[in-house]
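Researcher: Please generate the 3D structure of the following complex. Treat every line as part of one assembly.
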Amino acid sequence: MKIAHHSPEVQSYFTALLERLGEVNDLRSAADLLGWDQTTYMPPGGAAARARQLATLQRLAHEKFIAPAIGHLLDKLEKVVEELPPDDDAAALVRVTRRDYERLQRIPSAFTAQITTHIADSYEAWAQARPANDFARLAPYLEKTLALSHAFADFFPGYTHVADPLINLSDYGMTVATVQPLLRELRTHLQPIVKAISAQPAIDDRCLTQAFPEKAQWDFGVQIIQQFGYDFQRGRQDKTHHPFMTKFSLNDVRITTRFSEAYLAEGLFSTLHEAGHALYEMGINPAFERTPLADGASAGVHESQSRLWENQVGRSLAFWQHYYPQLQATFPEQLGKIDLATFYRAINVVRPSLIRTDADEVTYNLHIIIRFELELALLEGKLAVRDLPAAWDELYDTTLGVSASDYRDGVLQDVHWFSGLIGGAFQGYTLGNIMAAQFYAKALQTHPTIPAEIADGHFATLHQWLRTNIYQHGNKFTTADLVQRVTGTPLTLQPYLHYLHNKYGAIYNLALS
Amino acid sequence: MKIAHHSPEVQSYFTALLERLGEVNDLRSAADLLGWDQTTYMPPGGAAARARQLATLQRLAHEKFIAPAIGHLLDKLEKVVEELPPDDDAAALVRVTRRDYERLQRIPSAFTAQITTHIADSYEAWAQARPANDFARLAPYLEKTLALSHAFADFFPGYTHVADPLINLSDYGMTVATVQPLLRELRTHLQPIVKAISAQPAIDDRCLTQAFPEKAQWDFGVQIIQQFGYDFQRGRQDKTHHPFMTKFSLNDVRITTRFSEAYLAEGLFSTLHEAGHALYEMGINPAFERTPLADGASAGVHESQSRLWENQVGRSLAFWQHYYPQLQATFPEQLGKIDLATFYRAINVVRPSLIRTDADEVTYNLHIIIRFELELALLEGKLAVRDLPAAWDELYDTTLGVSASDYRDGVLQDVHWFSGLIGGAFQGYTLGNIMAAQFYAKALQTHPTIPAEIADGHFATLHQWLRTNIYQHGNKFTTADLVQRVTGTPLTLQPYLHYLHNKYGAIYNLALS
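Model: Done. Output below.
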């Protein structure tokens, strides 16, 4: 990156800033690799030392980032970038760096180290206690996580809601005041859809629950994501218990997946989902490498890209018009006699269930809204950790009409509260679903041929539109600015509701609105 | 670790030292993981960023280690540990840390950066020029490496031989004055053995060059090293082009291997060799974790452990009395009709050859001695880089009676001079072979039942003896001190010669002495 300024002094400030940010980025990337290894290949014995190593790297990255020298360089450069257009890259870098700098300045590095160590312990405990269905063992970890979450928020006095600083961590610029009404409004729309669908004859999706050998599933998914544009020269896929995307540079963007040999949809859509995250990172402007701009704009925008590829593309009829004959050829015994319409309905079945990650497009957001409300209740002190399982079960009963027989499939199902702070962990998923529809609607409006191209197995027009409008910008714009810039309107529920009504109205023979 | 001292002030110095050393250790371990990933799983696109990340971690580890604060803590603690017995752990930590501190202090970080960059360039050039058989292209890199090696040595004025500071890097305490006579004496013993064997009928080892499916080789090797005591809860095995052992903590000690489906001995003995390195690290006193004591004592001592498990154990008749029936059951078509005696002779065939890494136990050291003499001649200015290929070929002719038809299998075969300094790169291999025999002889003297146990597939007595006498001490003693302590005598050729004479005398029906 360069700064458009003729003064050698200003150039040297900018170069010095890049050098310091690069060092921080190297430390963070190393920490990310340690984290990737931890969940993919690390032997169990490595856990204790790995937690210490991660803590050291994160502490050093933190110390280096909040060094006064960076503050001084920002002071010098801010005066210069005021004269530049707001979407100038250098101006964006200074702006985003200042934002992160001010935030991290407030968090003592001892506190960061404390969080890192606690989270590592907490994750290990969860990994052992969840299979044992042992909430009691995990309650003290959650208590401490909650205390640390409060302590974190308190470094940002002046917040409106205690969750706001935590939400800011993953979805910068969002607040309880903006997110909660949106989620609650969405709930009022989703519940009637779920109710109407539940009154219809159930879809038969037994074709998905046959024996599907893993190797064939792996190869089928890999072939698709390569056609999406995922580049195995710049990434790889491994297996983990919980699939994720991670990157160590813009040319090393990895995904993980998991398979069930008894359920086809799990591995397939997990692969498409994580590939969507990866396409975003792989598409960031290479000039942003090693800077804070070389990241997604927010958890929500990131999720919009994984969801767009997984759902708007990967669960569409057009997509399977192309791929279903190939899938049948891959699994002739299992799917040879199942027609496309049956398969398409099976992968889009709407059925209230216990597990978030298995949920369909319609009920998924209700899982998120439950968690979001529980996070707020915990943070507001209205809910004690010991009462969390009961509150969880009650909300599942009233919102989705289902109840878990154990903690494994209930309150312990997600890793989030055991691998990060409480507050801000979940809203990004639903914000992502909403934005995916809003972005995709805009892409279709600009290029109405996209569905026809997808039906031919071509994704280049869509991928290029996403690269041009979203991916290349990385973390340059805030979520709100990006949505406005790309779609011409602020974040809105309408395209998402329109998408759900159309798609599920057709699938379930309902007039939804 | 604790220090046996009643003053809280001294305790606090010691704790502060441990904390600083722990931070350095975390950075180095992270760098090691980045290196492991680079050769196992990293996609090609990741290379450029990975080089930057490694450089950053190594620079920070260096800066942190030579911080004046560590010097001050050592000053304070040295007065205290003088009163402690020399084999006290805390005393050893202070002693070893001082040694490393003084060495690293002398090397300016700009010089380290220069070496790092040159080595990276040099390695890239070698990787391209070796297949092209292009020595001329690499000569300028070697010239520069030689100049840097001299410059390195000059940071340690007062050396007796210019190679001494370089040898110290991998085999602390060894010098040209101690190593060269030993290697030359060994040569005078090896050459008659090779000559006598060459006059005997050649051993038929074609049983090893059949088709051996990789998966079966992998499983067979894994089963053996688990019986050695390699703990897959505290390690793992992956595939790389060049096998190695690496560790990220004492509870995460990994090995890599490679297989040839056309040659059984390659993967099998590579696995046993690397497992030997790993058993050493896995056996280090857990109290040494995160300190400079949590390492092998030297390249030579490390190699003694890989060689002991690979050769003294893994190429012994007793070992195959137990495992050969299992190997035959694994590969019935290939080995079902080959008897144990034939197989045992095949894996111990002695045959002068061009490639060091393929060499047998007897000729292997002659490859090392050639390289060691060439390194010294280059450093002494008696040999110019341009004359190196001719000198190489001449030594191979006079020492082993073989000559390479190209540079690929001659002077360019090893990565060492293109991935590190010249001087000190090779002697550890032969020191390791010598020590392996000396240690093993002592173990057998103490526990004469070891060969019988091995013939039953039991390794616990040997493993425990190695743990007690060698492994647990880690880097606490110098090579010379450790050998004296374990065997009661200084480093000596006699046990090694005795081993070779007995073993190969029996195999080749010769009276060797």
